[in-house]
User: Which sequence fits this backbone?
């Protein structure tokens, strides 16, 4: 039987481990997909790079040119301007996909992170929170993410309704099978942890 205090200490250790890490979820995020969705490849305009806990938005101004864009960042440290090159790759079924070219390493990336100057995740030393989750926490996160995608609540005990608008029947049933598999894996992981603790 593992003492309860030991379980608390291990949990605190994991939380402390991530407290000094720069996580992607807490950074200013500039997304090519969002820029194109706002039509900023044709017109200049603002786009939000993060939302603060109080709900306030943090925008930057985008000025798109042929092969680069100019990002104007206005914040507490004053006005900063950054030039970011843009690259294109052909898609299999026609058209092109646009990428940022990281100012630091010249790698293609669809998302850049800023503080406030932007760079790719590798250059900024940024990690995902999921990299520090236990297998059980990772399974829970996948279940919640999939349930949201299917239009259901985060509560795993709530029923799943009809497919959301835009999701086909076969795709919905594929997600249902995946959800069942994830829930079974989480149950097995929970049972394994309980059996280990009761030794």
Assistant:
């Amino acid at each position: 039987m593992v003492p309860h205090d030991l379980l608390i200490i291990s949990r605190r250790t994991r939380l402390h481990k991530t407290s000094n890490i720069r996580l992607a979820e807490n950074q200013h995020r500039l997304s090519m997909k969002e820029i194109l969705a706002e039509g900023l490849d044709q017109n200049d305009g603002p786009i939000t790079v993060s939302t603060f806990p109080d709900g306030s938005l943090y925008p930057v101004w985008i000025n798109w040119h042929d092969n680069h864009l100019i990002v104007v960042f206005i914040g507490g440290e004053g006005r900063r301007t950054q030039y970011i090159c843009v690259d294109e790759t052909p898609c299999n079924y026609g058209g092109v996909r646009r990428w940022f070219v990281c100012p630091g390493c010249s790698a293609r990336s669809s998302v850049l992170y800023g503080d406030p100057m932007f760079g790719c995740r590798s250059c900024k030393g940024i990690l995902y929170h999921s990299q520090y989750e236990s297998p059980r926490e990772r399974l829970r996160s996948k279940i919640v993410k999939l349930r949201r995608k299917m239009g259901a609540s985060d509560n795993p005990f709530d029923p799943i309704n009809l497919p959301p608008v835009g999701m086909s029947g076969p795709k919905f049933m594929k997600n249902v099978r995946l959800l069942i598999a994830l829930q079974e894996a989480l149950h097995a992981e929970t049972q394994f942890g309980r059996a280990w603790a009761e030794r």
Notes: Helices lie at 4-19, 32-37, 121-124, 135-149, 169-197. The chain is about 35% helix and 25% strand.
